[in-house]
């Protein structure tokens, strides 16, 4: 399973809130945010497919699609909180644009999965940190739901690593 079966909370009614915006922005397009996860997992899926590791490739792609959904949710949330969904860790300021140098470009399956496990552990820690500081209950509900998926991804990567 790559994502929790629980429904994602609605973003309807979320109002401008710059404090919450600043808290969640790094999870969107920061160095270890959802954008990095999408790009890294797609990269790895392609390489694993070329290595004839189809099961691994498909799992990575499924998780990448889930992370892409997270990116969409966070981008929409950022817009509702008062900034355009620019690929930067500090919207609304158009500085510090995202760089694909954040992606881990490992080429060996074990190294890939170790990097993915580290990425998911960092995502979990980041979402837990946000939840400790966020004061907007509706946004907190969204973050808590994303956190559930990240925990599922971590389980999947640990299972894949054990299969090597």
How would you explain this protein's 3D organization?
- There is one protein chain.
- With 164 residues, this protein is mainly α.
- It has one domain (18-163): Ferritin (Up-down Bundle), CATH 1.20.1260.10.
- It contains 5 helices and no strands.
- The protein has helices at 18-29, 34-50, 54-81, 109-133, 137-163.
- Helix 1 packs antiparallel against helix 3 and helix 2 packs antiparallel against helix 4.
- The protein is globular and about 45 Å long.
- The model has no long low-confidence stretch (mean pLDDT 95).
Measured as a percent range, the helix fraction is: 55-70%
| Biggest pleated sheet | none
How many discrete structural domains? 1
Q: Decide which structural class fits the backbone.
A: mainly alpha
Radius of gyration, in angstroms, nearest whole number: 16 Å
Q: Give the tally of β-strands.
A: 0
- What is the general shape? globular
Give the CATH class. Mainly Alpha
CATH-level-2 architecture: Up-down Bundle
- Integer average pLDDT: 95
Provide the fold topology.
Elements: H1 18-29, H2 34-50, H3 54-81, H4 109-133, H5 137-163
Helix pairs in contact: 1-3, 2-3, 2-4, 3-5, 4-5
């Amino acid at each position: 399973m790559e994502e929790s079966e629980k429904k994602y909370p609605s973003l309807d009614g979320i109002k401008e809130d710059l404090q919450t915006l600043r808290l969640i922005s790094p999870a969107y397009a920061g160095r270890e945010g959802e954008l990095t996860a999408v790009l890294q997992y797609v990269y790895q899926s392609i390489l694993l497919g070329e290595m004839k590791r189809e099961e691994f490739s498909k799992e990575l792609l499924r998780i990448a699609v889930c992370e892409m959904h997270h990116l969409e949710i966070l981008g929409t949330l950022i817009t509702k909180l008062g900034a355009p969904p620019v690929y930067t860790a500090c919207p609304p300021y158009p500085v510090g644009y995202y760089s694909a140098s954040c992606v881990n470009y490992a080429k060996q399956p074990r190294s890939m999965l170790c990097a993915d496990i580290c990425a998911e552990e960092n995502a979990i820690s980041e979402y837990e940190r946000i939840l400790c500081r966020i004061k907007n209950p509706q946004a907190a509900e969204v973050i808590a739901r994303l956190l559930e998926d990240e925990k599922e991804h971590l389980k999947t990567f640990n299972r894949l690593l054990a299969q090597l």
